Amino acid sequence: MPIIVSPSVTAPVAPVEPYTRVEHSDRVDDPYRWMADKTDPRLLRYLTAENEYTAAVTAPLAGLRDELYADLDARTQQTDLSVPSFVTHTSGDSFWYYTRTVEGLAYPIHCRVAASGRDQIPDVGDAPLPDETVLLDVNALAEGEAYCALGWADVSPDGRLLGYSVDVAGDERYDLVVKEIATGETVGDPILGVGAGGAWAGDDWVFYLRVDAAWRPHEVWRHRLGTPPAGDVLVLAEPDERFWMGVDAARGYEWVLIEIGSPTTTECHLIPTATPDAAPRCVARRRPGVDYTVEVAPDALYILHNDGAQDFMLSRAPVESTSPDDWTTVIPARRGVRLNGVTAYTRGLLVSQRVEGLTGLAFLRRLPDGSLGDPQPILFAEPLYTVGAEEDPDVDTDRVRLMFESLATPPELIEYQFDTGERRVLKRTPVRDHPRHGPFDPSAYVQERLWATAPDGVEVPLSVIRPAGVPLDGSAPCLLYGYGSYEVSIDPFFSISRLSLLDRGYVVAIAHVRGGGELGRSWYESGKLDAKPTTFTDFIACARHLVDAGYTSPERLAIEGGSAGGLLIGAVMNLAPDLCRAAHAAVPFVDALTTILNPELPLSVMEWEEWGDPLHDPRIYDVMKSYSPYENVRAARYPAILATTSLNDTRVEVTEPAKWIARLRATATNGPDRPILLRTEMVAGHGGVSGRYAGWRDRAFELAWIIDQTTR
Predict the structure, then answer these.
(1) Number of Cα atoms under 13 Å in the Cβ half of residue 354
(2) 362 - beta bridge partners?
(3) DSSP 8-state code for residue 263
(4) Which residues are marked as active site?
(5) Quick count: other Cβ atoms within 10 Å of Cβ 119?
(6) Average pLDDT by stretches of 10, the chain with 712 residues
(7) Cα separation of 606 and 218, whole Å?
(8) DSSP states of 585-642 as a string?
(9) Model's pTM, two decimal places?
């Protein structure tokens, strides 16, 4: 039986403080608005009390948590390494780059070894090679820290220096360091408080980002090695609060690429690394609704864009181009094919695309006359899968590496020959034998694509995996995951932690609801702005389809989503509180209307193109008020709820789930068999804790709670 809260365990009661929000003549009482002040000591006391309550309520699950953690520990090849990647630097030196993980160490170790040629991949075993160089041991960076994450790490074009940035709080503010690889000595002073990302320009210059008070990357700066950071130069600034900035190095070390973007509009700039102090050159000035990316080849620019092509087309332009007037079509818009990316090689173009809800790759071979052939798809046999390609820095390479995985197939790294189409599996991610369940056998599971009918008649896809012997009589427990925002696609992926559910007879499903990008740009556009409610009704339709088809029952169904997917979970429960037995909302965006109404909060103005502008548009205000989870909590019997969040999250403030849980507990009619819980990581960010073992502990906690709630 699921845990029942003991009468001796008392849930925290959040203080209330009268406050009325008035917008567009609408008056809304918000007694927990005081939580918006993260410096208020009452908030920290409340979060601490919630953590203590959650720990007390879930204490009976300690054994199950340990069992689930042991599952991860048993199945994961903890001492492992990536397949080495070959790089030739401008100095002429070549190296194999790879990453080690070591049992007992939480973070990876980045290494390299000298290479004589790319055909001789070194046999790197568990022990370091005699001439191996450790570039960066993240375990050393994390020593004494509760959190550690890299924002950028890259070797200089000549292979002599390493630049990297690190965050030890979870607030996505990084300190940037450059060091000599040979000696380990730091070059100059660290650059403090930068954004994620960076780029080398030659061997003496580094470009980096600054973020504003709203955590928006809004400036690109240039730093010359050996000079004080105080003398760094502002390269480009973006004053429009709807747009963010990114900086990266284009392949071949010849260009720095600056991208300015909103959810619907982009603008790209190029700086030649030979003259890093040159003014940025704009490839095409921004036009509202025109979204484009640039691939820089030695002799051309390849521009993927949606100008007159909802699901994007590919054009070509001279390297020096500054106008769309120079663009000529390479791949026209094709119905049912969403183009996602392109990488240019001497032998042709490798294109990533999406067809019928699945990722895919196609190759356009360069013909003897220099023209390009038609896109030829690279096919795979499984019914559901995710495939992508590593970007090789050598434009003249005759091969490329593909990454393949499915719900039942662990990630594989496949070498693909451009000239022959021959494939060679370089590595399959190992799944070790389990002491009780034995060897991992992909054939023991069934992968399926199901379709649920939404209220407006639209067919919504689900990706499903289940043990082959599970009866479809409603008796199986099920976990249904969803996201559905920002055109993000939740593609079929492999998860070792998911095996712990499958071994216990669970069905696991992903609802590919509108607002995501699984079925192209139109799928995204039909689940955003004033059409956002379709995301929630799509998810409800998917859950009910699983029940109607016998995959599970409401009492055995758990639903899960994070961030904007947490908004999905909250909105779905308000609409259909009887839909499921349990709901896990991670870093949930559940007070969306309050947040988006405040342009001073992190990222709010940038979000207006996704959700709409409720501050100035009464219609959008009404739409958002109709679904924002915090605004719509009602006196109903909700599922058991677990909300997980982080104190230092800058994307979804801890205030949102804290207010939501307080209102749920004060309003919902749940009994002790359906607890409402909040768990806050006190040193972490939007992605949760850092380090694999801490991550395993957190996932074991979440899965133990889900299993307990959905198992009779």
Answers:
(1) 23
(2) 351, 377
(3) S
(4) 563, 649, 686
(5) 8
(6) 84 97 97 95 97 97 98 96 93 95 96 91 78 96 96 97 97 96 96 97 96 93 96 97 95 93 96 97 97 95 97 97 96 95 97 96 95 95 96 94 98 96 95 95 97 98 97 97 97 98 98 98 97 98 98 98 98 98 98 95 89 97 98 98 95 96 98 97 92 96 98 78
(7) 11
(8) EES---SHHHHHH-TTSTTTGGGHHHH--TTT-HHHHHHHHHH-GGGG--SS-PPEEE
(9) 0.96
